[in-house]
Input
Amino acid sequence: MNSTIFALATAPGRAGVGVVRLSGPGAAAAIETLAGPLPSPREASLRRLAYRGASIDQALILWFPAPHSFTGEDVAEFHIHGGRAVREALFSALLAMGFCPAEAGQFSRRAVENGKLDLTRAEAIADLTDAETPAQLRQALRQYDGALADLLENWRSRLIDALARAEAAIDFSDDGIGEREFARARHLASEISKEIQVHVDSSGRGESLREGLRLTVLGPPNAGKSSLVNALARREVAIVSQTPGTTRDVVEARLDLGGFLVTVADTAGLRETNDAVEAEGMRRALLHAAGGITLLLLDGSLENPRGDLPPQMPEPDLVVWNKSDLGFRRQGPSISLKTGGGLSELLEMLRRKVQQKLEGDGAPFLTRARHRHALGEALAALGQAVRAPGERPELLAEDLRLAMRAIGRITGQVDVEELLDSVFRDFCIGK
Output
């Protein structure tokens, strides 16, 4: 925490502008050594950068004195020209001055350690950096604005109230107040437990929205699965062949479906076979279909379009009939991958299904597995609290403390150190 770190905060490579950020006690000295007197806080100043007589660049300088900065420390920014030679010259000067290159996520980590961010908002910064679709952007912005932190703090503050009542039940167990306060504390624990359970049950939505919902295309051989995946991805992702069993493994492509990130997967044709490799491909297809949305594609021109689908075939979310150009009539959506007929209608139908799957009632989603794990621990503790015997209010109090501690770990209010490495390891350099 006493070192001064620096990093390129913009994308590496050739660019019009590159931003180099410093944070730590040496940030002011860096400006004064390279560019002269400190500019006014938060006001850009055009300066000539030079070190030991060697000119580096003409750049805009920004100065953010502590604690009014992103990290809570002294922060300096050099807005330089984005060429490699300029960047390397500035880096060499900073290294010669004794400053350290930042590790991934180190700026955001310092912001958390200095109380400028909680962990959920820090994670939202990573999500904003990685957002590929409007839906991911909306979710990341909501979390960065504190929607999830506010929900967690609401639960934690109510647990504090319940704990206070449980403590009162211990202190006043002999004069009639204790029994009443115990009942109120247990009622609060029950209410909070139900609310948390709702969010845990829907927790996959937030992770799917952030990482991409899986859309698995299943069906018999030669139904057109590979052609459909290529049509959805609008590029040649999967090999298309008239030979049955061409697709042996799961082939994936990521696409933006109406603002939602979806990973669409082509899979091996499902049929009875003695081929060990083809059987393994079908096993992987069915395993992949266990999450997300499944689309069963069938050849509507065949008398027995389902062929010999395996009995473990899951119930699909959508059945689509291919080869409508051959003039058949079937119940449900029909397309022609040969002519493109019905594809726009299918895309809209898939978009609505994805939206229905991912959008909830407006409450903030859990976006990390660690969120779900911590709330699972809180639920276990609250379950014990609800079942606590009336003559043992100290057991109720301890269970409430455990629930509070589990919720506090999500925002970083307790046990911060053990979480920081895992939270920030996937951040980009300069954040």
Notes: The longest strand covers residues 54-64. The radius of gyration is 29 Å. The chain has a mean pLDDT of 85. The chain is about 45% helix and 15% strand.
